[in-house]
């Protein structure tokens, strides 16, 4: 995540760095909304860049080997060059099912593994490339168009274009489609530690999960409940990744809840095990684009399902988009296959009136945002112009250049025709209320910083021709997980102004400090359908958000006393590993039980690591926590590492109050960053004093040969400057605009008093040496 915009006041309080949010989550420019799927990739999958991929196989019979290895999915080695950069020893194999078996020429789809030999080899963090051959898609654009739009409201893969060469021969244009793997999962979810299945028979099982035609919708792999025995599910799903000892039991639990769901029990039985809102967005997206490689059409394959370990919920994931937007499916019903019991996501969820209206609301949003002919034609025209000459020059393409132009026009025709078809449906066409003026207040001030234990009042104005049936406020602590629903009122008694003035008010009770809180509003029309509209319309993945500033602990009894973020020789743990470490110091003369205390390097998750119950910090003593992500080595090994380039640390007590926090910059190898005087002073760089008093050593200048070093940096009242090597007699200090602030006689060590400086960035220079100084008050 790139947190470019921060909630007012947050940066000065706790130094948000962006850790903790998945990459696909961002804050809106005003800091009041959390948005998911709104970013354009600026890396390998930038949509405006056509990359050149060159594969060189050392074997002259490479094509025969690829063919022989298709069924076993065995890679063969090749050298790869991408835009002039060489990647050694990648693994290559054919991929696809019908896109492989029904293509007679050489325009096959390829899977490329960069970690085939070298575990850490990647491109912009990606280790797998999928080059798809556009089978049944003469436009070359269906997957590109679909996933570029679907990701706005669904977890979806990135797609960009590549030109492939094999052993010096042009192989033509390919959409490069992101792999659904642990890298993908980490971009959309808090972690990739959950369980990921592909709804398809495992290779070689003959379990009936594949195939087509009459087998589709056979009640096997569409989240159908098959019984309590987990072995009944294993022939129909391929387990792709997991960390749980018994992952299949979660699939049993979810499918059983789905099979037995009713309008009366869905909130208590299904919502805890299925992300219902994500499932409805998934269905709305597949339906809007008439995706026939999909859950809604095949009812057993061409989708993934992911069990999110942080929320214990299942989420269906979109996959395979080369068959969307076909003319023969333009008139699919918006409730396609809902009457078929073997399609339980539609059959069960659409039968619950409240969820049916939620689904329709999501479908309306997709129609409004993505089925506008002017915008869609502009998108198609832009990328048609980008790839037109490449399609024409493609020597291996499956269809003619004339077919390409025809299919491009077919995409445009589909958009306008599908919009008309969907809006002609009586349920979809139902009018909805108009909602405006959404804001929250804290102690009477709009959009103010929330501090524990503040409660928050949310207001919104709504109108509808026959009146408002209900307005509901949904809120949740944390950036993932289920919401709590509460009513909003227009009665003059809920911070809503005068009664019956169209302004509604609802309350979010006080939430614990150091937490994010999400909320959104549902407004229900007073009409027979009880049609609804959400604000934001992308809820539950686009939501309003605020941060609850934690209170400082009433008494500071523990100090983060020393940090070692670049440890190569100073101290080893019990496993003789030189890992990062954090030293805590007890400022009192009594033992402190650390049960319930937390330590974190994540400003979005202050409770990231908890001390084991019964951990004692001795009176006036020290405790070392190893920041090595290796809990298996002992109770004092945290689930995070420290960055030698600088980050932050936070110590919270069991009442979620901030006991101590440290923000540090780039560190020096094998030098401690320690409080001097011990336990109470500012931080300085010095020889480490592992589990000992920091007053016992001075600064070791030997490591600063030929440099200007400033400590602490950022600084507040004063900073120390250490110099070595060749430097001028004077040291000059400039502000960010280049103005000279002052001159100082150069020496090996001197002090600059920065208390009167404005907060900002300065430059310290002496001859050819220079260093940046940051002042923060």
Question: How would a textbook summarize the main sheet?
Answer: 8 strands, mixed
Low-confidence stretches: 1-19, 207-213, 698-705
Q: What is the C-alpha radius of gyration, as a whole number of Å?
A: 30 Å
Helix content: 10-25%
Could you tell me the mean pLDDT?
A: 91
Q: Pairing-aware structural class of the strands and helices?
A: alpha+beta
| DSSP summary: helix tally | 13
Fold and architecture overview:
This protein has 777 residues and is an alpha+beta fold. The protein is built from 13 helices and 42 strands. Strands 1, 2, 16, 18, 19, 21, 22 and 23 form an 8-stranded mixed sheet that branches. Strand 8 and strand 9 (169-177) form a beta hairpin. Helix 8 (276-288) packs across helix 11 and helix 12 (373-393) packs antiparallel against helix 13 (401-423). It is globular, with a radius of gyration of 30 Å. The model is unreliable at 1-19, 207-213 and 698-705 (pLDDT under 50).
